[in-house]
User: Fold this.
Amino acid sequence: MTAPVSPAETAAASDPVSTPRRGLMRWPFEFAFREERFFLVLSVFIGIFSALAVVSFRLAIDCSRLRLLGPGLTPSGLSVILAPSLAGIVVAILVLHVFPTVRGSGVNQTKAALYIYNGYIPLRTGVGKFITSALAIGAGHSLGPEDPSLQIGASLASALGRRLKLSREKLRLLAPVGAAAGLAAAFNAPISAVLFVIEEVIGRWSAGILGSVVLSAISSVVVMRWFLGSEPMFRIPAVQLIRPQELLAYAALGIVGGVAALVFARGIGFLRPRLKGLPRWTQYLQPAIAGLLIGLIGYVGFPQVMGAGYEYIDEAMRGQFTWKMLAILAVLKILATTLSFVSGTPGGMFAPTLFIGAMLGGAVGHVERIVFPYLTGSVGTYCLVGMGVLFAGFLRAPMTSVFMVLEVSGNYSIIVPVIVANTLSYVVSRALQPVPIFDLLTRQDGLELPSLEEQREETILRVEDAMHAPVGPVLEADETVEHANQRVQHSSDNIFLVRLNPTGWTTVSRDTLARFKGEGKAELSLGTALPSQLLPCLYPDQPLEAALRHVHEAPLLPVVHRAEFSRLEGVISEQDVLNRYKLVEREE
Amino acid sequence: MATAPPVSKPTAQREALVSLVLSALAIAAFAAVLGLTTRFHSWQASLAERMYGRGEHDLQTGRAAAAIEDFRSALAFDRDNPLYQFRLAQALEAEGRFDEAESYLINLWEHQPQNGMVNVQLARLAAHRQSTNRALRYYHNAIYGIWDSNPDENRRAARFELIEFLLKQKARTQVQSELIAMEAGLPSDPQLHLKVAELFLEIDDYANALAQFRQALQLDRKNVQATAGAGEAAFDLGRYRTAVRYLESAVAGNQKDEVSSKKLKTARLILESNPFQRSVSLAQRKRRVENAYKAASTHLNTCMQGRSASASPSPAESPVEKLYNQETTLKRKLRGRALDDLDFLENVMDFVFEVEEQTADCGSPTALDEALLLIGRNREGAER
Assistant:
């Protein structure tokens, strides 16, 4: 990345006295290496434990649903109203008195643990999330199990790290490792889990943690599949994009999905702080009232909106709802999920997002097929694309949304429509709602956490933005001190770059040249007269931050061509870098 | 909120120990979750069976809508169960929700493309949608597919269904092919031979029909239905002696069988009236020709009277009018000429047959008229 050989390294390498010190210095490196290796092993264990916890969580949700709403796929009778209402009261008491940190989905809390609390998530949070989410989702609250699974995995990982007394740095990294494992197990989708954790939890691309996150996600999925099977979540008929014009139909779905995501996000963003601002006693009732309203929706004929709703997504994909029913379900699910979420009921937004997307996709697909009968895509295909569309628009995780669709369906032939629709949905949503939902929730909670979307929008400054052409002459290694002295006479600069042979650069000052001449070295070549210390070289495309690390090493650094180190593209100094940053500040 | 944990100095031994402890914990947790999932899955399986049982009951009592909910609930617990999917598809079909039914069936078919039951169900859906090619494909898949029980019977039933479908489509050649394919593998069951024979009759393949009726009779000599069918097939083939023999047995076995009685009378009349029979004497032949001529002449006159009363006069001479004019000439010839000339007898009979053919739909033909019409249509057969 930087210099072929730095002056310090050259000095150290030529220092014969340094050998015993190297032995002493090696110990921390070996230590670090061992901890690194152990961290990878630990990631696998975290994956296993998270998967076991998530499998138990899934069983708990199913069990609570069967007990509270009965074994019928479509719950009926008074239990539809009573179960979510009474569960709401119990959940409220638990959240307010026993597990105060389990409100919400769990994604932001995990991110906050990573950036604010050094990766510390109490095990109690995980246990509380397990109990309250299982009860709420099982009773019919319109929430999903994925985000809580993410937090359960993260809290397990954090607890394990603390128990093993890992370093603060490693402990901080464990939370996303556990989060990825939890999400992967809940979603049966390791790639999406890894991407989501990078996009939404870590909030930046970090190669250092990628290996551990992947390992934990994979081991988690392997264990989960051992218990719950490896079938994809949804099965859709084979997709064939016969006419490229059909992409327009998917593009239309992308736009509709972007608008729906906006409505959903605005609803939550508007209601959540208002309900949170109500007196504390109302918080005992909020989940119950939300449950009552959702129960009423179920009671009047739309029980599909209750719970996570995966069974109904599958049914929608089989074309078992009319377009009107699909549209109604999409609208009601937005309402039900908003109610559940803003009331502070613990539970995730993944499943509802997929549900709304599937119903919306199915409805749009149906209508498009009525208007344009030549369209060949099945309703199932539109449902699937719709899921990705809302995921991209609402959760604002475009990469995850694409891979999520591919993974949950096991169907890679759908990739082109998914990319088209998701991109449009993301663009529409971002244009109309600049702050993504997770960032919005974080800010409402009074926190400021890094976001990948912000990073994407940030202007990246590069070395080429700050460098300038050399003012004085560039000296060559084979020219004599006398000749060099003559060349620099007419220059106003005091420091000059010297091109060494075969490659490499160094600097020489006007005073040094004069001193060499005074010492009788006028006929020596610069290469012989100057000490063999090389300057670090920079490349024009490197981020400006990279230059910052080196500009203090010399008053002037060469910026060279990547394919030809002896070709000078420009020079950069500490002042140049600072000036560029100041300019950006002024522009902003 | 959090306090920074003290930095550890893990050693190789400590790492190994920690790994061992974690492995032991993982195994213990694994076993615990395995116990939980096993219990939960068996509970789910029992619930699925309960819901399936309810669905079966609902379906049998004609409550298809309730059955759909039950089967769906059963599938929520065991979503890959092909039986639940199949029964759900049937319930959906019973409710007229063909698209949904097809979706489940297609899913089943993708997993088991040779499953006979699934193919038959898909074929029925295709037949309902008048999609002949798809119906044919699925029916053939079912006929050559895999059946869990009674494969021969099920394959035969599928072929019978296909034949019924093809008959509705009036695809007689395809029906004939299917029947010929089927007759080769029929077991020794007179009812099956009878059914196939009747289907052959339906597509006017009298020879194969007669062969199948005979097969049925070989297995059950007293089968009146087969006897009547054989008589009918022989009659339609123009093999009147054979027909008489079978029809006599049929009428004797079931005196209420009016169709066979009528055909028997006609067959007998044909045998009695046919002047071309080899065994008849010249005198008999002459008498038969005279009787035939008289009957044809009467039928022609009745027909002409009826026409002149009802029809508007047309400038062109109709075939019946032409025959009427010929009849006048022929009558004169007959008066002045003996019927010893065999060629002349042939000419008279040609005239008779032509009259019966042209007046078949005219007036009320007598039994002899009908017999003469059939003799004319099948001269060679009438001799047998």
Summary: The longest helix of chain B spans residues 12-60. Chain B touches chain A at residues 1-2, 4-10, 12, 15, 18-19, 22, 25-26, 29-30, 33-34, 36-37, 40, 44, 47, 50-51, 69-70, 72-73, 75-77, 79-80, 97, 99-100, 103-104, 106-107 (CB under 8 Å). Residues 282-306+318-383 of chain B form one domain.
